[in-house]
């Protein structure tokens, strides 16, 4: 867990960062449908849960691009983490509340999946907003709304507008043209990433879903 400070005067993105942070403070949302037809079939065949597979997919793509790992640290310095881990919500069906837990990321899915299962076993029934304590600073949020197939989703974060990390929301998958599509919404800060970067993220998520044989364990 290493935080790499950015020297703004030597940063090629300096004019864009300063404009969208100081002049026109701007975040934006983007929602895209990911084709998970083959991925979902394989997960069901192997008895692997969809939610952690999606969390791992998103985190893998986030870790490939510094734009999605750029933020201010606890000392107010601008920089980027060498790697990120997911902080995600879980739902309590009995009282319709949710909790937030986190799982350390690893590129090997099987290792991450086992840690996810361990965390769910230990913290999945904890009825607190923060079910698992000691969350490290290099995490980003993921949540799921599996009851509706939304076409767009927008978060309104009422703070100083300096939260630079992406926030992801997963919707309910649906059937269309013999495909199974899953809406994933991302909230991005224009100071650190543009529409191009967000588009590449979704393209890589689709590629990740298409190449599931390369990263899912053979069990």
UniProtKB/TrEMBL annotation:
Signal peptide: none annotated. It comes from the Bacteria. It holds the Pfam family CAT. NCBIfam families: chloram_CatA. This is Type A chloramphenicol O-acetyltransferase. It comes from Paenibacillus odorifer. The lineage of its organism: Bacteria, Bacillati, Bacillota, Bacilli, Bacillales.
């Amino acid at each position: 867990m290493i935080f790499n400070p950015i020297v703004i005067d030597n940063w090629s993105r300096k004019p864009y960062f300063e404009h969208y942070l100081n002049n026109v403070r701007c975040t934006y949302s983007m929602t895209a449908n990911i084709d998970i037809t083959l991925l979902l079939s394989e997960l069901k065949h192997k008895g692997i849960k969809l939610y952690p597979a999606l969390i791992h997919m998103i985190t893998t793509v986030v870790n490939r691009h510094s734009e999605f790992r750029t933020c201010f640290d606890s000392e107010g310095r601008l920089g980027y983490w060498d790697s990120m881990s997911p902080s995600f919500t879980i739902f309590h069906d009995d009282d319709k509340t949710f909790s937030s837990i986190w799982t350390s990321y690893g590129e090997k899915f099987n290792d991450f999946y086992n840690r996810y299962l361990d965390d769910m076993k230990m913290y999945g029934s904890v009825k607190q907003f923060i079910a698992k304590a000691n969350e490290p600073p290099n995490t980003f949020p993921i949540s799921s709304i599996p009851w509706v197939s939304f076409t767009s989703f927008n978060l309104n974060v009422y703070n100083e507008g300096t939260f630079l990390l992406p926030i992801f929301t997963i919707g309910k998958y649906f059937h269309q043209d013999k495909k199974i599509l899953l809406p994933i919404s991302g909230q991005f800060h224009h100071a650190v990433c543009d529409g191009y970067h967000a588009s590449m993220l979704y393209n890589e998520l689709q590629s990740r879903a298409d190449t599931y044989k390369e990263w899912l364990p053979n069990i």
